[in-house]
Design goal:
Blueprint lengths: L1 H5 L1 H34 L8 H12 L9 H26 L10 H32 L18 H6 L7 H11 L9 H6 L20 H8 L8 H31 L9 H4 L4 H30 L5 H9 L8 H6 L13 H28 L1
Helix pairs in contact: 2-4, 2-15, 4-5, 5-10, 10-12, 12-15
């Protein structure tokens, strides 16, 4: 294992991959921020335009630097996520072409391998996407200082922990006490007893704003560890469709370019090795076009995931839903893929921005990888 990591070729490819991912992500991150704001800031009757999103970020964050809010989390997640995507795909592709003379992966095999690779990527990158999305939305959100009531020092420790520093509505609490006071057998201090069970007080207080719940410690404290994987169903559907479409279309175009290059060769090549490698520019352009197509085919799931992750869902509400055996709304397909019925008319908001971001990023990552490997090896 030590010799493997000391191998110069392995280090060269690892450095080239990390540099290309960093470059592609950094250049396209403002587009990702605009896309996210269009997805979560649009309603059924109004649509947030890219110009409005940029102007809102500039006005509320004091400049265009807000377009890079949460960049570090996405960069970390992309490094692990893309590593998992390409790693799983290469393993499955090597299994498919094992024993074949032409060392070729069919388009259908690339599709299936991409579906599995995308699911693995989603499991790894989902927490980082949540931590990235919260600062993105917060940088374009305006919250009034009087929107929430801060908890007093004498508040119950349980409420302090579960409601994240905010008191419930005392009027609703009084109504609960009045309804239960008619019981013949009742607790001597019913108000204090109810405060120990904040999940019984749904609607008695507003959950904190997303601006106050964007740090990992705040998210885990208020929403629990499971919140880091919120929207996992839509995330798996998005990344599986994306990777499947990306690798299958890339393989299809790779095959087409090889066949085009072989036209007119004399003698006619009997294998891909005799045709020779394609130019890095051609491979990069095909990767960019594949990323564009894959983004279009998976965008509705991306919108569903983004909108679910920007919702602050305290633990007491999650507990209440479990106690009441709350059923997820929507038809079978929507429940399986994590799409909320109220988002049906919003699923394609920001699709052109995401297509552009994905196409440019794919081109930059693949092209930057070839460029870095070429220069590192020759040096």
């Amino acid at each position: 294992m030590d010799e493997f990591f000391k191998n110069r070729m392995f280090a060269t490819h690892a450095v080239a991959a990390a540099a290309s991912v960093t470059l592609g992500t950094a250049l396209t991150y403002p587009l990702d921020t605009i896309k996210t704001l269009m997805q979560v800031g649009s309603g059924s009757t109004r649509q947030l335009t890219p110009t409005q999103a940029v102007e809102r970020v500039r006005a509320l964050s004091g400049g265009f630097g807000g377009l890079y809010s949460g960049f570090g989390w996405l960069m970390l997640g992309r490094t692990f996520g893309l590593g998992a995507r390409f790693g799983v795909y290469e393993i499955l592709a090597a299994f498919c072409k094992d024993g074949r003379e032409d060392n070729y992966v069919y388009v259908s095999e690339a599709l299936l391998a991409g579906l599995a690779a995308g699911a693995a990527e989603s499991l790894i990158s989902s927490p980082f996407e949540l931590l990235k999305l919260r600062p993105q939305v917060a940088t374009a959100s305006r919250v009034s200082s009087s929107a929430f009531i801060r908890a007093e020092p004498a508040a119950s420790p349980v409420i302090e922990r579960l409601l994240h520093g905010y008191n419930p509505d005392k009027g609703i609490l009084s109504e609960y006490v009045g309804l239960l006071s008619t019981l013949t057998t009742r607790h001597p201090n019913m108000a204090a007893a109810l405060q120990e069970y904040p999940w019984m007080m749904t609607g008695s207080g507003r959950p904190p704003s997303i601006c106050d719940v964007k740090r990992p410690s705040d998210i885990i404290s208020l929403e629990g560890w499971s919140a880091l994987w919120r929207g996992l169903r839509s995330g798996i559907a998005r990344d599986s469709f994306y990777a499947g479409i990306f690798f299958s279309s890339w393989q299809f175009m790779h095959r087409a370019m090889l066949d085009w290059k072989a036209v007119g060769m004399d003698p006619e090549p009997s294998s891909d090795e005799e045709i020779g490698p394609l130019s890095p520019l051609a491979v990069s352009l095909s990767a960019g076009f594949s990323g564009l197509i894959a983004a279009a085919g998976s965008h509705c799931f991306d919108t569903a995931k983004s909108r679910s992750q920007c919702i602050v869902l305290p633990k007491y509400i999650t507990m209440e839903r479990k106690l009441l055996k709350w059923n997820t709304p929507g038809n079978g397909f929507e429940r399986a893929t994590g799409i909320h019925p109220s988002d049906r008319n919003l699923l394609f908001r920001g699709i052109w921005i995401r297509m552009a971001r994905s196409g440019i990023a794919s081109f930059m990552i693949v092209g930057g990888y070839f460029f870095a490997v070429d220069h590192l090896i020759t040096s």
